[in-house]
Design a protein that fits this description.
single chain, about 160 residues, two-stranded antiparallel ribbon, SRPBCC family protein, START-like_dom_sf, ASHA1/2-like_C
């Protein structure tokens, strides 16, 4: 168990989704860790991600900008806390580059890629500091938005991305 894995019975303020993907976890992990690939699927249907920057080490920058069809931008910035290829990615918006605390920490994401006989059991968890933040994320459409992102990820790794 990773030092960043709490006792599952003790996680509070968590939203999560799980999906079995018919692709090897190395491929799914690659779609998560190459900016040009992540930009193709990151965000709900109809949104684009024209900006994706990644520094794949603990403390390294993870920054995206998602855009709606009418041009509204949704920037996000944080840092990676843990990267274990091809098993796990943990990132947070609680810090920026050089471990500078953010003005308002909202969540930490834990994404796992479990191998199931050549397929990937994909689990994305969003941990929130407060019940109010968790509820706000749920109200924003966590399951719909992250679910649509996963649909786009599945299409990329099963139909478009070469092995």
């Amino acid at each position: 168990m990773s030092p960043l894995t709490p006792d599952p019975g003790r996680v509070q303020h968590e939203l999560s989704l799980t999906r079995l993907i018919d692709a090897p976890r190395t491929k799914v992990f690659r779609a998560w860790t190459e900016p040009a690939l992540l930009s193709q699927w990151w965000g709900p249907h109809g949104m684009t991600t024209p900006l994706c920057e990644m520094q794949l080490w603990p403390g390294g920058l993870f920054r995206t900008v998602m855009c709606t069809p009418d041009g509204m931008e949704y920037p996000s910035q944080g840092v990676f806390l843990e990267i274990v290829a091809p098993e796990r990615i943990v990132f947070t918006d609680a810090f920026g580059p050089a471990w500078v605390p953010s003005a308002k920490a909202f969540m930490t994401a834990v994404v796992t890629f479990d191998d199931l006989h050549g397929r990937t059991l994909y689990t994305a968890r969003a941990w929130h500091w407060t019940a109010a933040d968790c509820q706000a994320h749920d109200d924003m459409g966590f399951h719909r938005g992250w679910g649509e992102s996963v649909e786009r990820l599945v299409a990329l790794v099963t139909e478009q991305m070469p092995d």
